[in-house]
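New to this. Explain the following:
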Amino acid sequence: MNQNYIFLIIALVSFLVILWFVKNRKFQTTDSVSDAYDTWTSDRILEKLWGEHIHLGYYHDPSKIGDFREAKATFVHELVKWSGLDKLPRGSRVLDVGCGIGGSSRILAEHYGFNVIGITISAEQVKRARELTKSSLTCTFQQMDAMNLEFKDGEFDGIWSVEAGPHMPDKQKYADEMLRVLRPGGYLGVADWNSRDLTKKAPNLIEKMVLKQLLEQWAHPSFSSINSFQKNLSMSSFVGSQVETDDWTRETLPSWWESIFEGVRRPKVFLSLGLSSLFKSFREIPTILLMNWAFGNGLMQFGVFRCRG
C-alpha cells in the first residue's frame, strides 16, 4: 500500500478515537463559527503556541524550515507585495476581513502605515485583538459578519482576507461584499484554503472521508476551488479588473507539520495553561495531519487572488 495512504489511515483512525470522546464542530450557522473561534481564543492555546497569526506561514525554500512565527509574518509581506497593496500610500484605509486576533492588521498598520479596520464574527477575537494592539497603531477591530459588511460602497482603498472563505456559506456574497466596499481602483488581496476542482476530478471514497472531516472539525460549510472563487470575484458587479490567481501550496505546505512541532518546542505552554490544554491540542492533531495530507496530495490547494475595484 502507498505510504501516503498508510499515513492517512493512521490519521483517520486517530480521528475515530478522539471523536469517541468529543463531538465535532460541524457548521450549523454563522453562530457555530463564532462559537468555535470564541473558544479557541479564550483558551489562549493557539496564541501561546503559534503567536498572533492563526494563518499559515510562507517558506521561500520549503526544504529549509525556519521559525514558524517568522514564516507567518513573511506570509503577510509576500501577500501584500503579490496583491499590489504595497502600491497604496501610507494612510490608506484597508479592511481586514476575518482578522483573527489582529496579527495581520498590526503588520499592515505598523509596516505599511495603513489605517486598518479588522472585522471578525468572534467577540472574543475582537476583545483579544484590542488587548494586543498598541494605542499608537492605526488599527481598530469590530465584530461583524463578512457577508453583511456595515460599510458604505467604496469606503476602502484595500481589502485583505486570509483563510476566511471556507467559513462563508455564501461564497458569492462574500466576494460581492468585499468588492462592494472597495473603491474603484483599490486593491484586493485574498488567500484561502481551496479544494481542487472537484467537477473535473471527483473525489474517491477516501478523499470524500477526508473532506468531510476537514469541513466538520473546523466549522467549514464548504471549500471553493481556485477556479470557482475566481469566478465569484469575476462575476461581481463591483469588480474593476481581471481577477488573477496563483497556487501557493508549495510555499505554505511546511506550516502543517510546523504547527504540530510548536507544541514540542513550547512544552511550558501546557504547564501554564493546565493539562486540559494538552488534550485540547492533541484533539487538533488529526485534522492538521489530514490537512497536510490533503494539501500534499493535491486534494486541497492554497489559492491567492488579486484584482482591482
Remarks:
- The mean pLDDT is 90.
